[in-house]
UniProtKB/TrEMBL annotation:
Protein species of origin: Microseira wollei NIES-4236
Membrane spanning stretches: none
Protein name: Nudix hydrolase domain-containing protein
GO BP annotations listed: nucleoside phosphate metabolic process; ribose phosphate metabolic process
Keywords carried by this UniProt record: Hydrolase
Cofactor(s) in the UniProt record: Mg(2+)
Amino acid sequence: MPQGKEPPQLLKQRLFYLGRKFNYEVTRLRLPNGVEGEWECVRHPGGALAVPVTKEGKLILLRQYRFAVEGRILEFPAGTLEPGEDAAETIKREIEEETGYRAKTWTKLGEFFLAPGYSDEIIYAFLAQDLEPLETPPNQDDDEDMETVLMTPQELEQAILDGEPIDAKSISSFFLARPFLK
């Protein structure tokens, strides 16, 4: 059993929503400390994220409209893992689709839970370097509304400190990538 895993005793489980990207369930459990209760959980296959860095040392981000927050937020390219797909495959596909670049050099930065209070989603973060533009720019998915933004690491850090809307997975991945940035 992986470190940190202490399975609770499952008493009852109900699936409330079976979705395209995630499921929502309510589960009655007995925790390892003996406490019983009901917990809601978003079950997610996980996501992969790239911190793309140009030869000039600029970061490629996206300013994307997110319906849940009713506005645009700054984030690194990312995507949901498809069934049976490795996180490295996911992000190589997503970076091309979302930015129009292909990376020659990939470094795994780490992985982390996004919001473990209500979801099992894990983000697999990668550093993407030695970028080259694709010959044919990608077509945006119908359900995506985004623009590409280039920033220096210092500009991104200032945007974070200034409270610009930036998602948590991008902030976390930026700090994982900082030792590799010039």
